[in-house]
Specification:
Shape: globular
Number of helices: 10
Order of helices and strands: HHHHHEHEHEHEHEHEE
CATH superfamily: Vaccinia Virus protein VP39
Number of strands: 7
Radius of gyration: 17 Å
Helix content: 40-55%
Number of domains: 1
CATH class: Alpha Beta
Length: 235
Protein backbone atom coordinates (compact mmCIF):
# COMPACT_ATOMS: atom_id res chain seq x y z
CA UNK A 1 0.00 0.00 0.00
CA UNK A 2 2.70 2.49 1.01
CA UNK A 3 4.85 1.68 -2.01
CA UNK A 4 1.84 2.39 -4.27
CA UNK A 5 1.07 5.70 -2.56
CA UNK A 6 4.62 7.10 -2.55
CA UNK A 7 6.67 6.88 -5.71
CA UNK A 8 9.92 4.98 -4.97
CA UNK A 9 11.93 7.76 -6.63
CA UNK A 10 10.22 10.36 -4.44
CA UNK A 11 10.92 8.31 -1.34
CA UNK A 12 14.56 7.88 -2.32
CA UNK A 13 14.89 11.62 -2.96
CA UNK A 14 13.64 12.59 0.48
CA UNK A 15 15.53 9.82 2.21
CA UNK A 16 18.69 11.33 0.75
CA UNK A 17 17.60 14.75 2.02
CA UNK A 18 17.17 13.58 5.61
CA UNK A 19 20.40 11.59 5.52
CA UNK A 20 22.24 14.82 4.73
CA UNK A 21 21.08 16.09 8.14
CA UNK A 22 21.95 12.97 10.13
CA UNK A 23 22.39 13.73 13.83
CA UNK A 24 25.21 12.15 15.79
CA UNK A 25 24.99 12.82 19.52
CA UNK A 26 27.21 11.97 22.44
CA UNK A 27 26.55 8.63 24.13
CA UNK A 28 25.44 9.02 27.74
CA UNK A 29 26.00 6.62 30.65
CA UNK A 30 23.13 4.20 31.38
CA UNK A 31 20.10 5.76 33.04
CA UNK A 32 19.24 4.64 36.61
CA UNK A 33 15.71 5.94 36.03
CA UNK A 34 15.18 3.65 33.04
CA UNK A 35 16.56 0.72 35.03
CA UNK A 36 14.10 1.57 37.78
CA UNK A 37 11.19 1.63 35.34
CA UNK A 38 12.30 -1.67 33.82
CA UNK A 39 12.34 -3.25 37.28
CA UNK A 40 8.85 -1.91 37.94
CA UNK A 41 7.66 -3.45 34.65
CA UNK A 42 9.13 -6.82 35.66
CA UNK A 43 7.25 -6.60 38.98
CA UNK A 44 3.98 -5.34 37.48
CA UNK A 45 1.40 -8.14 37.25
CA UNK A 46 -0.57 -6.42 34.50
CA UNK A 47 2.55 -5.92 32.39
CA UNK A 48 3.37 -9.62 32.62
CA UNK A 49 -0.12 -10.91 31.82
CA UNK A 50 -1.40 -8.49 29.18
CA UNK A 51 -0.39 -8.44 25.53
CA UNK A 52 2.24 -5.80 24.83
CA UNK A 53 1.45 -2.97 22.42
CA UNK A 54 4.34 -1.19 20.79
CA UNK A 55 8.03 -1.35 21.48
CA UNK A 56 10.51 1.31 22.54
CA UNK A 57 13.99 0.40 21.33
CA UNK A 58 17.03 1.17 23.51
CA UNK A 59 18.56 3.11 20.63
CA UNK A 60 15.52 5.41 20.55
CA UNK A 61 15.76 6.02 24.29
CA UNK A 62 19.47 6.78 23.99
CA UNK A 63 18.73 9.36 21.31
CA UNK A 64 15.96 11.05 23.31
CA UNK A 65 18.19 11.33 26.37
CA UNK A 66 21.10 12.72 24.37
CA UNK A 67 18.90 15.10 22.40
CA UNK A 68 17.29 16.56 25.51
CA UNK A 69 20.71 16.85 27.18
CA UNK A 70 22.03 18.88 24.24
CA UNK A 71 18.91 20.99 23.75
CA UNK A 72 18.63 22.11 27.38
CA UNK A 73 22.30 22.24 28.34
CA UNK A 74 22.78 25.19 30.66
CA UNK A 75 19.09 26.04 30.59
CA UNK A 76 17.96 28.70 33.04
CA UNK A 77 14.82 30.75 33.33
CA UNK A 78 11.39 29.66 32.15
CA UNK A 79 9.88 26.24 32.83
CA UNK A 80 10.66 23.62 30.19
CA UNK A 81 7.45 22.20 28.74
CA UNK A 82 7.36 19.02 26.71
CA UNK A 83 4.53 16.97 25.24
CA UNK A 84 4.50 13.42 23.94
CA UNK A 85 1.83 11.51 22.06
CA UNK A 86 1.85 7.91 23.26
CA UNK A 87 2.87 6.64 26.69
CA UNK A 88 2.33 2.85 26.86
CA UNK A 89 4.95 1.56 29.38
CA UNK A 90 6.48 4.97 30.01
CA UNK A 91 9.96 4.39 28.57
CA UNK A 92 10.00 7.49 26.36
CA UNK A 93 8.58 9.63 29.16
CA UNK A 94 11.44 8.64 31.46
CA UNK A 95 13.96 9.15 28.64
CA UNK A 96 12.66 12.65 27.92
CA UNK A 97 12.80 13.62 31.59
CA UNK A 98 16.14 11.92 32.28
CA UNK A 99 18.31 14.81 31.11
CA UNK A 100 15.77 17.63 31.37
CA UNK A 101 16.30 20.37 33.98
CA UNK A 102 14.50 20.51 37.31
CA UNK A 103 11.12 22.17 36.97
CA UNK A 104 10.36 20.49 33.65
CA UNK A 105 6.73 19.59 32.92
CA UNK A 106 5.98 16.67 30.60
CA UNK A 107 2.45 16.09 29.30
CA UNK A 108 1.70 12.63 27.89
CA UNK A 109 -1.42 11.83 25.85
CA UNK A 110 -2.50 8.22 25.61
CA UNK A 111 -5.67 6.20 25.08
CA UNK A 112 -4.74 4.11 28.17
CA UNK A 113 -6.08 0.93 26.62
CA UNK A 114 -3.93 -1.28 28.84
CA UNK A 115 -4.22 -2.06 32.53
CA UNK A 116 -0.45 -1.83 32.98
CA UNK A 117 -0.33 1.85 32.01
CA UNK A 118 -1.76 3.45 35.22
CA UNK A 119 0.53 1.63 37.71
CA UNK A 120 3.59 2.28 35.57
CA UNK A 121 2.65 5.93 35.13
CA UNK A 122 2.69 6.25 38.92
CA UNK A 123 6.29 5.05 38.83
CA UNK A 124 7.10 7.70 36.21
CA UNK A 125 5.41 10.32 38.40
CA UNK A 126 7.59 9.31 41.35
CA UNK A 127 10.75 9.46 39.25
CA UNK A 128 9.78 12.91 37.98
CA UNK A 129 8.92 14.23 41.45
CA UNK A 130 12.26 13.09 42.86
CA UNK A 131 13.97 15.07 40.10
CA UNK A 132 11.91 18.19 40.82
CA UNK A 133 9.86 17.64 37.66
CA UNK A 134 6.23 16.92 36.86
CA UNK A 135 4.64 14.29 34.65
CA UNK A 136 0.96 14.41 33.68
CA UNK A 137 -0.82 11.64 31.79
CA UNK A 138 -4.12 12.53 30.13
CA UNK A 139 -6.38 9.81 28.78
CA UNK A 140 -8.00 10.36 25.42
CA UNK A 141 -7.65 10.60 21.65
CA UNK A 142 -4.77 12.90 20.73
CA UNK A 143 -6.67 14.08 17.64
CA UNK A 144 -9.25 15.65 19.96
CA UNK A 145 -6.95 16.64 22.81
CA UNK A 146 -3.97 18.29 21.11
CA UNK A 147 -5.92 21.31 19.81
CA UNK A 148 -6.80 22.19 23.42
CA UNK A 149 -3.14 22.97 24.13
CA UNK A 150 -2.48 25.52 21.38
CA UNK A 151 -2.01 28.24 23.99
CA UNK A 152 0.90 26.37 25.61
CA UNK A 153 4.35 27.19 24.27
CA UNK A 154 5.95 23.75 24.25
CA UNK A 155 9.71 23.47 23.89
CA UNK A 156 9.52 19.95 22.47
CA UNK A 157 6.82 17.62 21.15
CA UNK A 158 7.51 13.91 20.58
CA UNK A 159 5.03 12.14 18.27
CA UNK A 160 4.97 8.37 18.74
CA UNK A 161 1.32 7.32 19.07
CA UNK A 162 -0.87 5.58 16.52
CA UNK A 163 1.32 4.96 13.46
CA UNK A 164 -1.51 4.58 10.92
CA UNK A 165 -1.23 7.27 8.26
CA UNK A 166 -4.50 9.06 9.04
CA UNK A 167 -3.74 9.18 12.78
CA UNK A 168 -0.11 10.30 12.53
CA UNK A 169 -1.00 12.86 9.85
CA UNK A 170 -3.53 14.42 12.24
CA UNK A 171 -1.10 14.31 15.17
CA UNK A 172 1.64 15.91 13.10
CA UNK A 173 -0.66 18.63 11.74
CA UNK A 174 -2.05 19.47 15.18
CA UNK A 175 1.48 19.59 16.57
CA UNK A 176 2.58 21.92 13.77
CA UNK A 177 -0.36 24.21 14.50
CA UNK A 178 0.38 24.47 18.22
CA UNK A 179 4.12 24.91 17.75
CA UNK A 180 5.81 28.26 18.22
CA UNK A 181 8.96 29.27 16.39
CA UNK A 182 11.11 27.63 19.07
CA UNK A 183 9.16 24.36 19.39
CA UNK A 184 11.02 21.31 18.09
CA UNK A 185 8.86 18.49 16.78
CA UNK A 186 10.24 14.96 16.88
CA UNK A 187 8.38 12.50 14.65
CA UNK A 188 9.23 8.84 15.20
CA UNK A 189 9.48 6.07 12.56
CA UNK A 190 10.39 8.34 9.64
CA UNK A 191 12.16 6.38 6.87
CA UNK A 192 12.38 2.99 8.51
CA UNK A 193 11.94 -0.50 7.06
CA UNK A 194 9.42 -1.38 9.77
CA UNK A 195 5.73 -1.51 8.80
CA UNK A 196 5.09 1.15 11.47
CA UNK A 197 7.18 3.55 9.41
CA UNK A 198 4.84 3.74 6.41
CA UNK A 199 2.35 6.20 7.89
CA UNK A 200 4.84 8.55 9.59
CA UNK A 201 7.10 8.62 6.52
CA UNK A 202 4.24 9.50 4.19
CA UNK A 203 2.98 12.19 6.58
CA UNK A 204 6.47 13.68 6.87
CA UNK A 205 7.07 13.73 3.09
CA UNK A 206 3.74 15.47 2.49
CA UNK A 207 4.45 18.10 5.14
CA UNK A 208 7.91 18.73 3.69
CA UNK A 209 6.53 18.98 0.17
CA UNK A 210 3.84 21.51 1.09
CA UNK A 211 6.29 23.69 3.03
CA UNK A 212 4.79 23.09 6.48
CA UNK A 213 8.08 22.10 8.11
CA UNK A 214 11.77 22.81 8.24
CA UNK A 215 13.93 19.74 8.77
CA UNK A 216 16.42 20.39 11.57
CA UNK A 217 17.91 16.91 11.67
CA UNK A 218 17.32 13.17 11.43
CA UNK A 219 18.60 10.36 13.59
CA UNK A 220 18.89 6.73 12.57
CA UNK A 221 21.15 4.05 13.97
CA UNK A 222 19.93 1.45 11.44
CA UNK A 223 17.16 0.83 8.90
CA UNK A 224 14.69 0.07 11.69
CA UNK A 225 14.96 3.41 13.49
CA UNK A 226 14.41 6.97 12.33
CA UNK A 227 13.39 10.17 14.13
CA UNK A 228 12.94 13.42 12.20
CA UNK A 229 13.45 16.69 14.10
CA UNK A 230 11.42 19.54 12.65
CA UNK A 231 10.31 23.13 13.11
CA UNK A 232 6.81 24.27 12.12
CA UNK A 233 6.54 26.87 9.35
CA UNK A 234 2.77 27.30 9.79
CA UNK A 235 3.14 30.23 12.23
Amino acid sequence: MFAMEINPLTRAKYLEAVQEKQLFLAQLPPSPSLWRLQLAIAQCYEAQTEEVEGHCAPEQLDFLRSYVARKFAGHTGSTVRMCQIGFNYGHSAVALLDQAPAGTHLLSLDMVNHTYTPPLERVVQEIAMERGQKHILLKGDSAEMLPRFRTIDFDLVFIDGNHAYEAVKMDFLNSLLLASGRTELLLNHVFTDMIEGAGPTRAWIESFQDGSIELLGWHSCCSRHGIAVNRSLLR
